[in-house]
Design a protein that fits this description.
With 230 residues, the chain is α/β, with parallel strands linked by helices. Helices cover 30% and strands 26% of the residues. α3 packs across α4.
Length: 230
């Protein structure tokens, strides 16, 4: 049986290899997570909305990965916060165009960290431009979060309390219409959402970091490839 084709939007880097050279990549852990789940990972980097649509037509599912901060100025936030670290504008354009095309095509989407925030914003939600850490650290740590009982995420992960690796300071604030809260941290940070039709799963943590050793963290990728198989 052919593997389902899973598009992963590339991440910008100022330097690839030993020589100073700009480039685009997908992290090995993310590629391996998709592959272990039975998918065929395919990196994409569209430079126009039309190319994004054409690429999504070839796909069975989409991963919107984590990364640096989303520039919120096109979404009504007038100034850049001092803590924001923006990739080039091409990164936002690639993420947004693929996300919009995947939504229009009705493909299953796994949105991770920044990818979750991108998806929420383009669907009509809002995000915190900068979230101060309170009782829960969110930058480069593993922390616990509570899963809402009866949700898709509970069915995927199999428990109502989980731990994941987080590294972010932007986060979803108001969820877009059609998105449902499925997980939150002790400080009320939104740790996950899902669509009412069960074809979108957003996670604020990075399951790919621990998926090789932790079967629970591998399960979101299994959910995506199973749904992509139809």
């Amino acid at each position: 049986m052919p593997r389902p084709r899973i598009l992963i939007v590339g991440r910008w880097s100022d330097q690839i290899g030993k020589d100073p050279s700009e480039g685009v990549y997908v992290g090995r852990k993310l590629i391996d997570s998709v592959s272990r789940a039975g998918g065929e990972p395919i990196m994409v980097w569209p430079d126009t909305a039309d190319r994004a649509v054409d690429l999504v037509r070839l796909a069975d599912g989409v991963v919107l990965p984590g990364g640096n901060d989303l520039d919120l100025r096109p979404y009504g936030i007038p100034e850049v916060h001092p803590r924001e670290k923006h990739p080039p504008a091409e990164q936002d354009a690639a993420d947004v165009t693929v996300a919009r095309a995947a939504l229009d095509a009705g493909l299953p989407i796994l949105a991770i960290c920044r990818g979750m925030q991108v998806l929420n914003v383009i669907m009509g939600g809002t995000i915190h431009q900068h979230m101060e850490e309170t009782t829960v650290a969110h930058t480069g740590v593993r922390h616990e979060f509570d899963i809402v009982p009866g949700t898709l995420l509970e069915r995927v992960l199999g428990d109502v309390r989980a731990t994941g690796y987080s590294s972010h300071h932007q986060a979803c604030r108001d969820l877009a219409p059609g998105l449902l809260l499925n997980a939150s941290a002790e400080d009320r940070t939104i740790e996950g959402f899902e669509s009412s039709d069960g074809r979108i799963l957003g996670v604020q943590w990075h399951p790919e970091i621990d998926s090789a050793a932790d079967p629970v963290q591998q399960r979101p990728f299994g959910w995506l490839t199973d749904l992509a198989l139809g």
